[in-house]
């Protein structure tokens, strides 16, 4: 059995730890970006969320891309979504092409959305803990 929740938790911590903990302004900014990204993901979908992240929170997009591309432990999300030996590109234009490939299959798109949503929710809670809330 594959434990994808572990992957979501691991990358959520990476996203939350990307903010400087000594600066409450950075933590609040990250929390606001995560909340906004989560709302866009739920209301407007995967593509809209990644477009917004590219313009407002590239570090979060990079961390979510690394979640999709991770290879350890035999879990290869990118292979399920894109095909064997293919990964999501770092270049945003190429990344958008990868998203189009995923969007052709509604089951894969919904799977991707679920993983991203779970990771953003965990990140948001983790950031709230860091903020002392």
What's the layout of helices and strands?
Layout: H1 4-16, H2 24-44, H3 46-56, H4 58-69, H5 77-82, H6 92-103, H7 106-130
Mean model confidence by pLDDT: 90
Q: What is the beta-strand fraction?
A: under 5%
Q: What share of residues is helical?
A: over 70%
| DSSP, total strands | 0
> Based on CA inertia axes, which overall geometry fits?
globular
Structure description:
The protein has seven helices and no strands. Helix 2 runs antiparallel to helix 7. Helix content is 75%, strand content 0%. It has 133 residues and is mostly helical.
Overview in brief:
With 133 residues, this protein is an all-alpha fold. Helices cover 75% and strands 0% of the residues.
Key phrases:
133 residues, mainly alpha, 7 helices, 0% strand, globular
């Amino acid at each position: 059995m594959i434990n994808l929740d572990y992957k979501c938790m691991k990358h959520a911590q990476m996203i939350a730890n990307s903010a400087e903990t000594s600066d409450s302004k950075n933590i609040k900014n990250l929390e606001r970006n995560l909340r906004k990204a989560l709302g866009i993901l739920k209301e407007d979908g995967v593509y809209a969320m990644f477009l917004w992240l590219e313009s407002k929170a590239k570090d979060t997009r990079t961390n979510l891309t690394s979640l999709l591309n991770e290879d350890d432990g035999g879990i290869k999300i990118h292979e399920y979504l894109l095909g064997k030996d293919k990964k999501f590109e770092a270049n945003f234009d190429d990344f958008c092409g990868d998203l189009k490939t995923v969007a052709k299959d509604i089951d894969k798109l919904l799977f991707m959305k679920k993983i991203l949503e779970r990771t953003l929710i965990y990140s948001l809670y983790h950031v709230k803990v860091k903020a002392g809330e």
